[in-house]
């Protein structure tokens, strides 16, 4: 017997039919996925306000740890929620799962963080686990897998942050005046620019200076 289609299955078909002949960019794929997921919230009794979704580095916290982020409507000049999915994520099911999590913040307009308000919404749509890291439960995840099968792969390649090597810095010269005890430091590049025979004098008393490296 064929498995009866759920509302989310029908929503998937509608979204895929619209873009069946187009080559999607990653933001379009995320937008279509979010549009398809809207029915999960409406079926649970929640309206999803307008929002924007992009593949970009979250604006706060560690880029290695924060994989999704939603900003409140008050923070946007457009007056809508702004959502970001980390470019480190390239698995399509994970991308939709994170989108669901962030859409819970959209419904709540980021008012409760991961507190009671967020938990009520997330639990109602079938998300499980600690709320800060809430993910789709078994039934909801099955729907996400089905959605990806219809929508096709997420058109994005994982972006891995590269640690920038810090240039080694030479310890500056420290000069001290034996006459008045005035001291100061000078960078190596300044010393290198001086005439080798130049004699430095104390800026305070003009006494010739020695140095301690």
List the helices and strands and how they pair.
Layout: H1 7-18, H2 26-43, E1 51-55, E2 68-71, E3 81-85, H3 92-108, H4 116-125, E4 127-128, E5 135-136, H5 138-151, E6 173-176, E7 183-186, H6 188-192, E8 210-212
Parallel strand pairs: 1-3
Antiparallel strand pairs: 2-3, 4-5, 6-7, 6-8
Summary keywords:
three-stranded antiparallel beta sheet, 2 domains, 36% helix, alpha+beta, 6 helices, elongated, three-stranded mixed beta sheet, 213 residues
What would you note in describing this structure?
This protein has 213 residues and is of the alpha+beta class. The chain folds into 2 domains: 7-151, no CATH class; 173-212, no CATH class. It contains 6 helices and 8 strands. It has helices at residues 7-18, 26-43, 92-108, 116-125, 138-151, 188-192; strands at residues 51-55, 68-71, 81-85, 127-128, 135-136, 173-176, 183-186, 210-212. The strands form 3 sheets. It has a 3-stranded mixed β-sheet with strand order 1-3-2. A 3-stranded antiparallel β-sheet has the order 7-6-8. A two-stranded antiparallel ribbon has the order 4-5. α1 runs antiparallel to α2. The N and C termini lie far apart (85 Å).
């Amino acid at each position: 017997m064929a498995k009866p289609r759920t509302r989310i299955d029908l929503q998937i078909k509608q979204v895929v039919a619209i873009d069946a002949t187009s080559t999607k960019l990653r933001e379009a794929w995320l937008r279509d996925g979010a549009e398809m997921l809207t029915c999960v919230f409406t079926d649970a009794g929640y309206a999803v306000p307008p929002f924007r979704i992009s593949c970009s580095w979250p604006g706060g916290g560690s880029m290695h740890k924060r994989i999704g982020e939603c900003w409140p409507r008050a923070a946007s000049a457009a007056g809508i929620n702004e959502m970001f999915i980390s470019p480190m994520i390239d698995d399509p099911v994970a991308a939709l799962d994170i989108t669901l999590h962030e859409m819970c913040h959209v419904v709540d307009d980021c008012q409760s963080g991961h507190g009671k308000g967020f938990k009520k919404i997330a639990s109602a749509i079938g998300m499980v686990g600690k709320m800060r890291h809430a993910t789709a439960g078994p039934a909801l995840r099955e729907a996400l897998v089905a959605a990806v099968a219809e929508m096709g792969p997420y058109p994005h390649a994982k972006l891995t942050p590269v640690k920038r090597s810090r240039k080694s810095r030479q310890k500056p010269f420290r000069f001290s005046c034996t006459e008045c005890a005035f001291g100061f430091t000078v960078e190596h590049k300044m010393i290198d620019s001086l005439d080798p025979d130049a004699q430095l004098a104390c800026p305070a008393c003009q006494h010739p200076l020695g140095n301690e490296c």
